[in-house]
Amino acid sequence: MQLNGKTVIVTGGSDGIGKHICLKLAAAGCKLAILGRNRDRLDQVAEAARSLGAPEARSYGADMTDPAAIGAAASAILQDFGSVDILINNAGIWHKAGPLDSISEEMLMATVQTNLTGLMQLTRHLLPALRTRDEAAIVNVASKSGVVAQAGQSVYTATKYGVRGFTDVLKVDEAETGVRVAGLYQSGTNTGMFAKAGEDVPNHIFTEPEDLADVVVFMLSRPPKLWMHEVRVEL
């Protein structure tokens, strides 16, 4: 895929992996629609993207637990940009590791809705537009937790296994439409995700978000006859 001039939607784009994906794609000449909850940080990323070469970069405040907000953001993006070529589902949250009964009901619901339900809802809204493009792609940034069961991650892992299953079926469903679908399954990443959940982890030993962003750009920019439908990144 030739990335220059493509319109890309990135969820969870205000920091971490999503932010660096936006900056890398901006340097490749992509137009960006950046979704997240923190408008101030989103606006900063959009400004940085424009300074790096993005012909257009706009921010959209959207809570991935709110179906109405997701639908409104999708509609606004299609109205503002006219089309979309690439959807990168990156938004996600972490619950502090522990037995299932140590995870609050509120945290359980927020994790499922942010990591899985919201991802599916946004994809559903955008699929018709993606199918109209000559080149289109969906990349779901999941986690190693979508491949390997790890202690204390019952709810988080359930969402990521769900993303993996959704990705695999979507790939089959869209095989004849031209929309290519891929999943990225990465190990721990040096972002603020764990700290936001009150988890103290050795972030410094984890993969750097800008390196994972390079992986996403590499996946998207392969020649037409080569598509990497599943990529696993280990420490």
Description:
The protein has 235 residues and is of the alpha/beta class. It has 7 helices and 7 strands, in the order E-H-E-H-E-H-E-H-E-H-E-H-H-E. It has helices at residues 16-27, 39-52, 67-81, 105-130, 154-173, 193-196, 209-220; strands at residues 7-11, 31-36, 57-61, 86-89, 136-141, 179-186, 230-233. A 7-stranded parallel beta sheet has the order 3-2-1-4-5-6-7, with helices on both faces. Helix 4 links the parallel strand 4 (86-89) and strand 5. The chain is globular. The two termini are 28 Å apart.
List the helices and strands and how they pair.
Blueprint: E1 7-11, H1 16-27, E2 31-36, H2 39-52, E3 57-61, H3 67-81, E4 86-89, H4 105-130, E5 136-141, H5 154-173, E6 179-186, H6 193-196, H7 209-220, E7 230-233
Parallel strand pairs: 1-2, 1-4, 2-3, 4-5, 5-6, 6-7
Brief write-up:
By secondary structure, the protein is α/β, with parallel strands linked by helices. It has helices spanning 16-27, 39-52, 67-81, 105-130, 154-173, 193-196, 209-220, and strands at 7-11, 31-36, 57-61, 86-89, 136-141, 179-186, 230-233.
Question: Helical residue percent?
Answer: 40-55%
What integer is the average pLDDT?
A: 92
The strands making up the biggest β-sheet line up spatially as: 3-2-1-4-5-6-7
- Uncertain runs: none
Structural class: alpha/beta
- Determine the number of helices (DSSP H or I, runs of at least 4 residues): 7
Biggest sheet overview: 7 strands, parallel
SSE run: EHEHEHEHEHEHHE
Anisotropy-based shape: globular
Beta-strand portion reads 15-25%
Rg calculated over all Cα atoms? 17 Å
